[in-house]
Amino acid sequence: MNRKQHDIGQIYAQYLNAENEKNRLERYDGKEYYYHASGSGKCSRQLYYQSVEKTKPTNPADAKSMRVMRLGTIVHEDIQKSLVLYNINNNINNNINSDNIPSELTLSVGKNGFVIEGEVIIKELNVRGFFDLLQILNSGVNDSKTIFLYDIKTAADYSFRRMFGTGKTTKMNHHELQLATYGYAVKEKYGRLDGMYLMYYNKTTSVIKYMEVPLTMLNTAYMFWANINKEHSKGLPPLQEGVSPVMKWECNYCNYLDHCKNNNQIKVTNNE
Question: Does residue 223 sit within a domain?
Fold first, then answer.
């Protein structure tokens, strides 16, 4: 490469790093004391480092990982923008926020409306997050509104086929717990929740499929965070496969790997 040429990949990585930091500051600056709902079902030690000890990550995402995450962000943003336009084209008040649903969401009978990126907090569990989208349907019966919650996920073709292909279906339990955490907060805040769905986008084929998550998972998510709070009140959790970490291979992608290794001399493998 000519010396005068720039490493475009490096420039892109710097841009992504800056965007990630901007997003972190917008969402979490000054609110680090909350657990992140997106951490549902993840390693208890990782959650402790992040939200209790507030340790600075020792192993930030590399350039490839940031590019992969960016593809997921782009899909999220495209889907959400399409729903904002749907609201506009159907004369639905697009300036609503997560605090004025469902009372101030004006919908004609039989019409859908969508709420994007709503902030939710479960105070007694010290958990905070942002749901991807709520779908509101005006049934026309006593001005009642039906509420459905969706979380958008992108998946590699291999993972997608394991979830939706023939044969045994593989579920992403942490995805279900994350959605159910949002769901618990939504139901607590708005008084009802009629259904929850994971919306998976195949990054190879662009196929979209849905997986319904039963409302019984709301209690499972609540208990997960209740147990996390109880465990963390005693200090840093010990290493315990199935909890800290949930799966051994997670350590290879953990932002706190070196910090954890220094504390416990853990041995990390590449086994999945």
Answer: yes
CA 167/CA 187 separation, integer angstroms: 34
CB-CB neighbours of 149 under 10 Å = 25
Q: Tokens 């942490």: give the residue.
A: 174
In a domain, 186, yes or no: yes
Q: How many domains does the chain have?
A: 1
Percent of the chain residues past pLDDT 70, beyond the cut: 82
Rounded to an integer, what distance in angstroms lies between the CA atom of residue 216 and that of residue 40? 16
Task: Identify whether the C-beta of residue 110 lies closer than 8 Å to the C-beta of residue 138.
Answer: yes
Question: Whole domain around residue 112: which residue ranges?
Answer: 62-237
Residue type, 15: Y
Record the pTM: 0.84
Distance in angstroms between the alpha carbons of the first and the last residue of the chain:
38
- Residues 99 and 233: their CA atoms lie apart, in Å, by 31
Residue 12 lies in a domain: no
For position 211, which CATH number holds? 3.90.320
